[in-house]
Amino acid sequence: MADETPRKGSFSALVGHTNGLTKPASLAAAAVTSKPGGSGGSKKLVIKNFRDRPKLPDNYTQDTWHKLHEAVKAIQSSTSIRYNLEELYQAVENLCSHKVAPTLYQQLREACESHVQAQILQFREYPFLVCTDSLDSVFFLKKINTCWQDHCRQMIMVRSIFLFLDRTYVLQNSLLPSIWDMGLELFRSHVISDRMVQTKTIDGILLLIARERSGEAVDRSLLRGLLGMLSDLQVYKDSFELKFLEETNCLYAAEGQRLMQEREVPEYLNHVSKRLEEEGDRVITYLDHSTQKPLIACVEKQLLGEHLTAILQKGLDHLLDENRVPDLTQMYQLFSRVRGGQQALLQHWSEYIKTFGTTIVINPEKDKDMVQDLLDFKDRVDHVIDVCFQRNEKFINLMKESFEAFINKRPNKPAELIAKHVDSKLRAGNKEATDEELERILDKVMIIFRFIHGKDVFEAFYKKDLAKRLLVGKSASVDAEKSMLSKLKHGKAGGRTPFTLESSCPDLLCSQYMQNQSDPGSIDLTVNILTMGYWPTYTPMDVHLTPEVSVREALCPLLVSGWCCPGITGVPLVTWCRAASPQKALEPTLRENFSLSVVPGKLCLHVPSSLTYCVHQLAVRKALAQPCLPAAVGLPVWLLPHVRCEGPLCPHHLGEEPGARGPAVSVPPEQGAGGRPAVSVSLWRGVAGSCVHVTLVSRDVRAPGRTLGSGP
């Protein structure tokens, strides 16, 4: 037919099979029809099978809400629900799909609000609401906690039924609270915000916490539930935390004042640690995490911050004196938690070191043990810093300043005694300690030495003692001597000393060479030739020796002999006399070696048997120079023949009263090797076969490594 219209395309054929989420490619091509009489006319898209949304029955909304309301009431009354939960969920979805969601949300809110309003009546009608008895308070708290737990459980069930409403309509409207938040808001506004209920709840919680702090056992799960309720309802900080911190502050302020008067410092510190641990446990168990910082700060302030000075004045010195390391560690840890605590501890720590150290340094009666006491005190202080104060740099630096302050209150004496202490240790060597122990002792001594200002005094005494050890052969360990000199040379003591083993060894080797090359003289003689400027100098003194031991006569052949080194002049520097002596006065047969200077040795030689002299008589009789008298008096009492002190020279070196008498020392003449006279002293029938040590000084400094030349 000419007027037959074109056949329209079928929509169902274009759509094909799809899951509704992806757009099929065939859908892009629409069914196109052309107007009659032309192929290029306007085109029209026709969609078939389009149907409008079916309308709900007239009573569907009311009937569905009635069913949902009945289910909500069953949940709130804890009874069984007549309908299937899936059926209820589908009903909510149908209502939301037909744009009934606003009405449905409002109806649900009204149903929940009416139920919550009914719950407040049970608390208002209770007669114990205004009672302060603890049992009634606990019962009230349990009722509140039960009501809250039931409300949470009910809102979870209601939300599961109205989940489609919560995820679509409520989520798309930011001004509306979710169903869960709506339930919290209703409980807060109608239950907890009630003034009487809130007051009773907060007071009951504080009462339980106070009872627990006093040592009673309480229901912690009840406290955890109630405080969790306050936190969820966002009234924790305003309604509970402020009152809780205020009561905590009052409690510990009174407790701190009372216990500081009743307990000793260690006991008080243990109590503070226990309280801090308890409060930290409360935060973990039932308090909100946000309360931890202000709560701990309150305890620290009232139990520590307010009593820092009192604690330090009352117990720090006692703890340090007794070296109570655990208590000092606890004090440091607690004071580190409080603002200004470490600074206060630092100040009192420094004062203690200065006070204790001053008692060691100032008292002349303790000079004998001063250095050892300082070393022991330094070890104890270092141990406290390492173990108790965690090697805090502030405490280390302040300790050094404090040591430097008190050790220099007595100028020069500590330096002298330190040098003497080093001398005694180097003389003893490995007789008293191993090489490792001796090295540790020297390191400790040098640490003490760094604190003194009179380093030149130490150097003078140390050089003098070192020269004696080397010349007399009293040094027990060459390695120890080198180690000590290395510490001085390389700045460990804050400076360097010009007297070293490198400069002294050539002198000793040359002296030994010359001694071996010489012929035996009239007496046993040992000569050391030293380089001027490398060895300590001494003031010359005039001493008249007996003819048989005249050093001048013995030295003259030596000085003019053909093998004498050029440039060496006979300038006596040090002269020692080595002899034997009894170790104990009651055991005259026992002997030990000792070293004497020439003056005491001369006195021993010139005192005949069974004769007692005063010091002045000895000086006149044997032409002893008057300035030498103090040196003579300094002779040990067991060595000197009994010398009576008269006149102004009456020192206490002898340890006896003036005018006292005792047994004299017999000095019979003795012969050396080969019939030659020797410088010998017989004490308590002990014979001392020994020799004279004479030291000469070369006025010209020899170049290192120069050997002795042979003369004509």
Automatic annotation (TrEMBL):
Pathway: Protein modification; protein ubiquitination. Keywords: Isopeptide bond, Ubl conjugation, Ubl conjugation pathway. Residues 413-550 form the Cullin family profile domain. Pfam families: Cullin (PF00888). GO terms for biological process: ubiquitin-dependent protein catabolic process. One of its GO terms (molecular function) is ubiquitin protein ligase binding. The keyword Cell wall biogenesis/degradation does not apply. It comes from the Eukaryota. InterPro entries: Cullin, Cullin_homology, Cullin_homology_sf, Cullin_N, Cullin_repeat-like_dom_sf. PANTHER family: CULLIN (PTHR11932). Belongs to the cullin family. This is Cullin 4A. The gene is CUL4A.
